[in-house]
Every structure is written in structure tokens, then in C-alpha cells.
Amino acid sequence: MSTPAGGTAVVTGGSSGIGAAVALRLAAAGWDVVVSGRDRTRLAAVAAACGGTAVEADLARPDGVEAVRSAAEGRVRLLVHGAGLGWAGPVADTPPDAVSAMLAVNLDAPIRLTNALLPTLRDQDGHVVFVASVAAIGVAGEAVYSATKAGLRGFADAVRLESGVRVTTVLPGAVDTPYFARRGTPYHRRFPRPVSADRVAAAVVDSVGRDRAEVFVPRWLTLGARVHGAVPATFARLSRRFDPPAR
């Protein structure tokens, strides 16, 4: 069964990048949008552009998670987990605070928010979208980020089976957003080339309308995931050809 537009959609990570693009797309499709994020100025601009409500919240902090829960409880029909943090470099060099932040924002916050809002989502015949990443299959130089996205994908699969709400996982490749600037390391891979945030947002809205379980953006990345699942050693050899070691 598809998820028709209408009702309240809550989008985390809504102050820029994929989250902002999703908020604008959802508003255009007829949703009443609540956007959360850390950057007050950008968040206010996105909320104004989509005629929605801004909730300033840092999802690395318990009070940030609580602020989103409080704003969404009792009315959310669509929950889009768009917030995310990254760090690039060898796993042995990953700073402990970066590990903690990625675990908190990329994995812990979506789990806690989903758990807290499931009663409302069930009542509203709701839908949850997890913006994961193709890195969920493992990317050199982004071990902790990959782990958080793999965990998010696994959690989404389990919630889809047991919760009684619709669940979609969106797995983009590289996306042209401020994410790379914030993580402190530019995108260095020769392949694949980054896609726009709006392209991912269009896939999110389409997947909600069609009630799709899992979507890769661009779609050809599905092939890489299948190769990884069937012959992981071959996948690793191919990956090294396009993925120089992170420095």
C-alpha cells in the first residue's frame, strides 16, 4: 500500500543538504513539515521556504532528541531521519569524540526517536524513512561512518518486520552537500561522482508515495550492493581500484 501525501512530516537534518531538500519536496507534495537542525539561521530559512515549523536541536545531545520527540509526538505521520555526521581517515586515527558524535547522531538518535514515536506513527498509519548510505556495505577510510549506516539499515529492516508501520531505507552514494566540508575532508574518490541533494530528496518522496522498502541513489548502486552480498572478496578488489587509501 502506498503512503498518500498529507499530515505532518518531521525531517531531521533539515537545515541543509538532503534534509533541507526533502523538506522542500514534501511541502510541495502537500505535507505539513517540521524541520529540525542545529543551524538556527539556515533552519529558519528552510522552514520559511516550506511554510513549516523549525525545531532547533542537536541530535548528539539527549535534549536535542527530546526536542524533536516533543514536537512530533501526537501528530507525526511521516518521520524522515536525514541528520548525519561523518569523518574520513584510517579507523586507527578516528578521534574518540568523532566516534561518539557519529554513533549518537547517525544511529542512536534515529533509534530513540523511532522508538519514542512508534505509538503515534501506528495511530497515524505512518511511515519512517531512514537516510542511510551506500557506505553501509563498507567503505575504506570511513569505517565508523560505515558502521553507523550499516546499523541504521539493519534497524530499519527489523522495524519494517515488526512495527506495523511502513519503512523505507534510502541509500545514496556520494551527495553534493556541505557534509564533506563539515567532516573536514573533501570527496576524493574518482568514482562514483556525487549526485545532487534534490535528486536524493526526489527519491525519498517517490519511495514514500510508492511504499518502497529500499532505494539506492543512483539506482545502479544496487548492483554494487548485490556484488558485495554475493562475492565480498571480489567487491573488495573492485573497490580498491576506485578508492585510494584515505590519508
Describe the 3D structure.
GO terms for molecular function: oxidoreductase activity. This protein has 247 residues and is an alpha/beta fold. It is 49% helix and 16% strand. Helix 6 (179-183) links the parallel strand 7 (175-176) and strand 8 (195-196). The N and C termini lie far apart (47 Å). 44% of the residues are buried.
Rg: 17 Å
The structural class is alpha/beta
Number of domains: 1
Strand share of the residues?
15-25%
Task: Specify the number of helices.
Answer: 9
Q: Helix coverage percent of residues? A: 40-55%
CATH topology: Rossmann fold
**Ends: how far apart?**
47 Å
Return the CATH architecture: 3-Layer(aba) Sandwich
What would CATH call the class? Alpha Beta
Say which CATH homologous superfamily is assigned. NAD(P)-binding Rossmann-like Domain
How would you describe the shape? globular
Family: Belongs to the short-chain dehydrogenases/reductases (SDR) family.
Domain Ketoreductase: 7-178
Keywords: Oxidoreductase
Pfam family, one: adh_short
